[in-house]
Amino acid sequence: xxxxxxxxxxxxxxxxxxxxxxxxxxxxxxxxxxxxxxxxxxxxxxxxxxxxxxxxxxxxxxxxxxxxxxxxxxxxxxxxxxxxxxxxxxxxxxxxxxxxxxxxxxxxxxxxxxxxxxxxxxxxxxxxxxx
Length: 131
Ligand SMILES: [Zn+2]
Prior knowledge:
By secondary structure, this protein is an alpha/beta fold. The chain has helices at about 35-40, 80-95, 100-105, 115-130, and strands at about 5-10, 15-25, 45, 55, 60-65, 70-75, 110-115. Zinc ion (ZN) binds next to loops.
């Protein structure tokens, strides 16, 4: 199961504010159904309960390319260097949490991807190798 959380969404059409389930984390070896949506940047589809307007949220998703030692953070908003550095620090603080994570971290590459085209290429490569 993908890692999910709840977030507040303000409808672009009628301005109604509602809670929606969003995906924060995807494991490619388990979440096959999400591959297609992810490749088109439509992983986080939400719908306004009031006016039925559908939106695709532009939020970051962490993607685990298991069994490759690669973790990708897709964040369309991380074009700024400061944002990317912040993600990097967060990742380092997570893997610095204990020895086991540190060991995993030393064997795992962490990449930040901001462009959906780049993410598509990476997922296509993954599907070819493991699909
Ligand atoms: Zn609405």
